[in-house]
Design a protein that fits this description.
single chain; 344 residues; alpha+beta; 56% helix; globular
Length: 344
């Protein structure tokens, strides 16, 4: 596997210049079979919650005693954690006879733990309860996964409310940190922050260049949006060539929000200085990380999905806290000198 991934010499002849996972495995299987070693391609999926699970190809080799599983990208051995083998061999997953239209095949993976909610649903089905018809559990799996994400957005907005109105954290907009936190669900924090900083940094360079052209607001935003999309495409292609799967997740970032973030950061830079612009950027990233941690807390996700009426309680807290007009935590230090003058 490692020799085939060098992409030179005889490796090009065996793989035929198509250095994908399946091509590398097929070439390795051919070589091993010629040496009387039984090997074959297998496909499977990771048992992580996702709406469209992608098949991952591995190579299985029999050493006379047991099967060994090898990663086609780096040659590491062992079956990955939470990996379900779906198919043995390189045959097509399905065949359509007499079909005139293109067939789309997709898998939705959703963990279904045996808990009180599952038992209650089974009991409701047995008793033919009419209340079960109004439950989210009756929806298709892929729709349930969508609502599991949507139901956490008000929680993220509530966290931003606390950070802005009570702590005094400065952010670019209200919903930008929440949407960035949603993107962190797939990219995770380290890669998500890295990709965010990379896109915003290049976007700022382009934005400062556009200042020299004296463009109006709408053409300037359209130009920045185009550049952001080009940057996302470039990162995806570069990640493909370097074998970095996390780089593909850049497509999950909200491009319009990134565009507005670049524009507002540039305006803040011009009006209030670079320190305030960086302060707001770091505040937005910190708010996004905190919102992501809270929104991805499994017990909270379970409660809000099982009992969506809890959003009414959250709405009550938002209306209550929204009436607060007192000091924020960051302002206590700011007005400390005035308090000392009053005491003297």
């Amino acid at each position: 596997i490692k020799e085939l991934n060098k992409r030179e010499g005889s490796a090009k002849l065996l793989v035929d210049n198509h250095f994908g996972d399946e091509s590398v495995i097929n070439a390795a299987v051919t070589v091993l079979n010629q040496a009387k070693i039984y090997a074959m391609l297998i496909k499977g999926i990771y048992l992580n919650a996702r709406s469209k699970a992608e098949f991952k190809a591995l190579m299985a080799v029999y050493n006379g005693q047991k099967w060994l599983y090898i990663n086609p990208q780096n040659g590491s051995m062992g079956l990955p954690k939470n990996f379900l083998i779906w198919q043995y061999g390189a045959q097509p997953l399905y065949e359509v006879a007499g079909g005139a239209q293109k067939v789309v095949f997709s898998l939705t993976v959703s963990p279904t733990p045996i808990n009180a909610l599952t038992i209650a649903k089974a009991r409701g089905v047995q008793t033919e309860s009419q209340m079960l018809r109004f439950s989210l559990l009756q929806l298709p799996i892929h729709v349930q996964e969508t609502y599991k994400v949507l139901l956490t957005i008000p929680i993220g907005a509530f966290i931003i409310l606390l950070l802005r109105n009570f702590v005094g954290l400065t952010t670019f907009g209200t919903f930008m940190p929440v949407l960035i936190a949603l993107a962190f669900r797939e990219t995770h924090i380290v890669w998500g922050v890295t990709l965010f900083i990379l896109i915003v940094s290049f976007g700022l360079i382009v934005r400062f260049y556009l200042d020299q052209l004296r463009l109006l607001l709408v053409p300037r935003l359209a130009a920045i949006l185009t550049v952001v999309i080009l940057l996302m495409i470039s990162i995806s292609i570069l990640s493909q060539n370097l074998g970095l799967e996390h780089g593909f997740s850049v497509a999950l970032f909200p491009m319009v929000i990134l565009t507005m973030t670049i524009e507002r950061m540039c305006i803040t830079w011009d009006e209030r200085g670079a320190s305030e612009a960086f302060k707001a950027s770091l505040g937005s990233l910190f708010a996004a990380i905190v919102a992501f941690k809270v929104m991805s807390f499994p017990p909270l996700q379970y409660l809000i999905f099982a009992f969506p009426e809890l959003l009414l309680v959250l709405l009550a807290f938002i209306l209550w806290f929204g009436q607060y007009k007192g000091y924020r935590l960051t302002e206590l230090r700011r007005f400390k000198a005035l308090a000392q003058q009053d005491l003297t």
